[in-house]
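MODEL INPUT / OUTPUT PAIR
PAIR INDEX: 1
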Amino acid sequence: MRKQFLIVCFLLFYLSNVFANEKNILEIAEGSARSWLELTDTGKYRESWERASTLFKTKTAEAEWVQTITANRASRGVVTARYIATASSAKSLPGLPDGEYIVLQFYTTFEAKGLALETITLAKSSGDAWMVSQYTIK
């Protein structure tokens, strides 16, 4: 009976650490996403490109990014609210090499166009940093 008790205690301790680590990773990734989104919210599109991952930069040239995001965001107006809708992790995603990814979706309201769904894919880079590797808005 004592052995079973110790096993149960060990499992509870292990699982609590796993969930704590996942929560911490999510908080870090969400913080990175929100910092990056703040750059786009304030029209700092070149800086948002510079702070994106190498994957992002490889797929999208700086001039192309600035032109696309300027056209997309200008018509929407100022962000009035942003709430996280979903969060998931993946090792493999279409169009990206295998790695560690977190996909966050935000419900975002804009002054001129109302509600939009922003999807941000973050890739784990060296030093355990999470950097934006994809961004879409619908």
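PAIR INDEX: 2
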Amino acid sequence: MMDRMTHKKVHDKSKIVELTVRPTREVLKDFATTLRKVRKGQKVESRVGISFESIDGLRKVLTRRRLELLSIVKREKPQSVYELSKFLKRDLKSVNTDLKVLEENDLIEFKRVNDGRQRLIPKVSFDNIKITVEV
């Protein structure tokens, strides 16, 4: 079971995606506070990001190979998953597995193209990853 809670924060100017490691109880506490404010008609602070319950959960998503994959997509801009696998010198099946995990965690997106053949073009919309661990 993945211990990830989905939120995404990408800063427009600096293009940073924020990942946070914080206990579920803290996330639920924040949710309860927000819900109370909404019910009272009070203004709520908009917060988004990608949160993980533990360092282990974060490590399962951001492996060395997946970070390399994100970097190659950003730098080389492959025009297909097949081309990406060639840049990485990895088999297509393992690249697809990593892409699926990254997509499920909102760290990569795809543009669908049908120009005589259907293909997915992987895209990374940020330049840096900021990781915060709450203690």
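PAIR 2 NOTE: The beta strands are 4-5, 16-21, 50-52, 109-114, 118-123, 128-133.
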